[in-house]
Amino acid sequence: xxxxxxxxxxxxxxxxxxxxxxxxxxxxGRVVNTTSAVGMFGQRRSAVYAAGKMGIVGLTRVLAQEGAxxxxxxxxxxxxxxxxxxxEVYGRLDEEIxxxxxxxxxxxxxxxxxxxxxEVVSAGGGRMSRLLVGxxxxxxxxxxxxxxxAANLAAVCAQERPVVVPDSAMAExxxxxxxxxxxxxxPMLPR
Length: 191
What we know:
The chain is of the alpha/beta class. The protein has 2 domains: 2-131, 3-Layer(aba) Sandwich (Rossmann fold), CATH 3.40.50.720; 135-185. It has 7 helices and 6 strands, in the order αβααβααβββαβα. The strands form 2 sheets. It has a 4-stranded mixed beta sheet. Strands 5-6 form a two-stranded antiparallel ribbon. A hairpin with a 2-residue loop joins β3 and β4. α1 packs parallel to α3 (47-67). The longest helix has 24 residues, at 2-25.
């Protein structure tokens, strides 16, 4: 279990630490981490792998925020391609999804002209898409108690609700502030 986290999360951190110092010293650069749709969406019998790969998503988002001041862009790729490991999990993946289709997206993310940072891009078989961690608009009550929470939980988790994609944890706090004007000055909420 720890070995899996060591490879999939700590391995990236150990590579990034010395690289980060170098990139910051030279005034910028690009980082492309490797995550997985398993971390974003889950897959039976893959709990530790998924935890490590979702850790990469958090690492990518935080380093993108911290790297902006140094000209460093940080993104992650969630590859889908024919490989021995993928075949063991998903069964046979035909030649329609060769690794070369993923490599093209990695090259775009690593290019100096890449316009995005803090993103997770799924790539496979010639298809690429942005993977999101988001929040529904939710439900708000200034006197929320356990009964009211239970009564509204299904509606909050309904997929048809609008999705907001906060760019930081502070942006999530701002969603709370918008619900109740008096919360803007609440001393317990960070500014």
